[in-house]
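pasting for ref. prot 1 ->
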Amino acid sequence: MYYTRMYRLAVSILYDEDESKDVVSEVFSRLISNDISLRPETTEAYLLMSVRNHCRNVLERKQVRERFLHLQSEDFCESMPSDAEQLRMSELMQYIETYLSPLGREIFRLRYLQDMTCQEVADALGVSRVTVHNHLRESVQRIRTYFKSIQ
């Protein structure tokens, strides 16, 4: 019933039909796997917001990949991180993806990968600035603890 609207929203954000289909499928898949029941009056808004958020995550991942590719281009060869630094960055990204909460992950990405201020992050996510600070403090502490333990 909502597929067409969700798909059109995804295409308008991603400009990629196949990726848009994947996003909509992923939203439905998460609904089913998490056994989420929606109220009829909020179903459409919830689904469209889920598509929008998932599209933002897809775009963020693309941006991170593009930054890495840009660093590896010939123009930046001399400033390219060493193999050890690349491995460390890969481990960091894996840790963030696996162990941080969805909100913590989003806050961390917006703040450190997109260079947004804490206030900009708070405004973008509709949370308070204190919430942003608390999640950043907790995330950084968890990351430090993890990396100290594997050294």
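and prot 2 ->
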Amino acid sequence: MPSKGILIVLSGPSGSGKGTVLKKMLEKSIDMKLSISATTRSPRVGEKHGEDYYFISKAEFIQLISKNEVLEHTEYCENYYGTPTKQVNEWLEKGKDVVLEIEVNGGTQIKKKSPSAISIFILPPSLKVLRERLIARKTESIDIIEKRLQIALKEIQEAYNYDYVVVNDSLDECVEKICSIISLEKNKLKEKFNIIREVLENV
């Protein structure tokens, strides 16, 4: 039986509730870690290095890319964002499951580099509900919300490429479904290794 943890990609459009779902998941499991991204942008008020992000220079980030030490990365508003490989691998080797809350482009990169990663896409019950959730936040103008909905449409099309799709209608049910998926995948992995071990030992 392998002692390594599993890598989990969690994606979904803005307003799908993936942040809240992730928080509940982390509360339920002591063997699960949230990957911390690196960025070249400056820290915002209240943000801490090593907790919210790893805040590094562009030169440092480019070096990470050149050494293939990021699982995925993107450039947005003249700043780099990405997932450093080192911390993720350390947690996996210690048997911790690692969750990456990332957008679809990053998810695609992860699956290419780590095909064994489990990808889960969180959907809202409908676009109408998604719009209502974004409006209820009261943090953005209607114009910005409409732009987010257009982006959401494109992101949802990418859900076909994910291993699992879960609708976040009820928070508790959504969390339970995702935890069940992770448990199922771990059991499948355990069974596979047990079968291989039995064959190798049956000399």
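DSSP finds seven helices and nine strands in the chain.
The CA atoms of residues 28 and 179 lie 9 Å apart.
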